[in-house]
């Protein structure tokens, strides 16, 4: 039995769950967000990396059902933290291109916000550049409809794709997420730090925020602060953790 067959029933059997990685404001060092990261624990195979099963979910179309569940579960958790009086955060959810291209995306996200009671401003959707190269008119309309609900949009893995910079003007995204490959090599590789500097300047000159991911050291943090990066995410600040651990982290901040 292949991985696809196992993945088919995984959601129903409760094998899928979310981890949350904290995101910090670099100036204040406060937690301002969480990125929801999907996990699969198979009873015999153990933990299977999303890098393995997400492509399978995408090819098979299973990503639609799984992705819906991810949005629902992430919003439900964020709303629960809010109701518990914990510091307000934005919940960031990764969206596959296939999900983004569904004509019912905006409606179903609106339904999830209504069901969970999470305000749209507390939801952020992470899109990869590959999403932004589709039918321009359609992408513009989808983004507009999501933004009308207060939802924030971030371009994930920024700098690694092929989207033209001109699209940044047409698509009203709010934030760029600098890919971790640039952050990783920043201290040792002049060209990586140049790319990071350029992305931050580009973002700010377009009125966008910028978040760096994969921040692992104090040195990288200092360098990012000097370059006026807005937010950081990475092992130096906090690894992806389960809901219970994240609740404790939020509680320790009040
Ligand atoms: O979670 P890391 O810890 O291993 O994630 C690996 C990859 O899987 C990343 O590229 C991340 O964007 C992607 N990923 C994690 N969770 C989700 C999800 O819920 N949906 C989609 N589409 N991708 C996800
Ligand atoms: O592509 P996306 O940004 O959604 O994926 C985030 C991925 O990066 C996840 O696999 C997450 O576990 C991983 N990650 C988060 N912080 C760090 C870090 O500091 N170092 C490394 N190497 N990976 C990280
Ligand atoms: Mn992401
Ligand atoms: Na990324």
UniProtKB/TrEMBL annotation:
<protein>
    <recommendedName>
        <fullName>cyclic-guanylate-specific phosphodiesterase</fullName>
    </recommendedName>
</protein>
<feature type="domain" description="EAL">
    <location>
        <begin position="1"/>
        <end position="254"/>
    </location>
</feature>
